[in-house]
Amino acid sequence: QKEVEQDPGPLSVPEGAIVSLNCTYSNSAFQYFMWYRQYSRKGPELLMYTYSSGNKEDGRFTAQVDKSSKYISLFIRDSQPSDSATYLCAMKATGGFKTIFGAGTRLFVKA
Amino acid sequence: DVKVTQSSRYLVKRTGEKVFLECVQDMDHENMFWYRQDPGLGLRLIYFSYDVKMKEKGDIPEGYSVSREKKERFSLILESASTNQTSMYLCASSSALGVGEKLFFGSGTQLSVL
Predict the structure, then answer these.
(1) Which of B96, B61, B86 shows the shortest CA–CA distance to B76?
(2) Parts of chain A with a pLDDT under 70
């Protein structure tokens, strides 16, 4: 079993839709939860960062962490064609040196 | 603007060749990483370095070695390239370990081994 599971998609939505991207994990030691966005032919860039449980909002993006269920989500409101990318969840334990990545979900937002 | 630069976007090599992938960062970061990215498998850590001349194995170090002679430069070496090393290679750097540090990635090198 992988430490982090993420549906690879692809996920196709119309412009303006609310997008929900999710990951599950098995390691209860994970305390840091990140979402990276990767455009085609580019490296990933950090989009959202959350420590422990709870929600974090940044503009149209909301990250949620439910440690009791070992489940994290990224919501994108009013999605735009420019949001079309691969979204990778990532996690890390306190004191650990490795960031563990999900496989990534490809998102297409149609104009 | 912060930058991680990988020397090549695309490389085509033959089986058995020795391959060097170079990465340079301009952020004075202590930590540097090499990942490979394959469809359906996500990013897997090959090696990382937390200081000059220091290196640690990641999850899939077999067939690879690394060199870090200067703080800003981290090289990945494929000693004898094989077809199963065809992949996207991503270099990253960060300023802290042990906490939820932000990783800065280069644009990647797509390596094809024929």
Answers:
(1) B61
(2) none
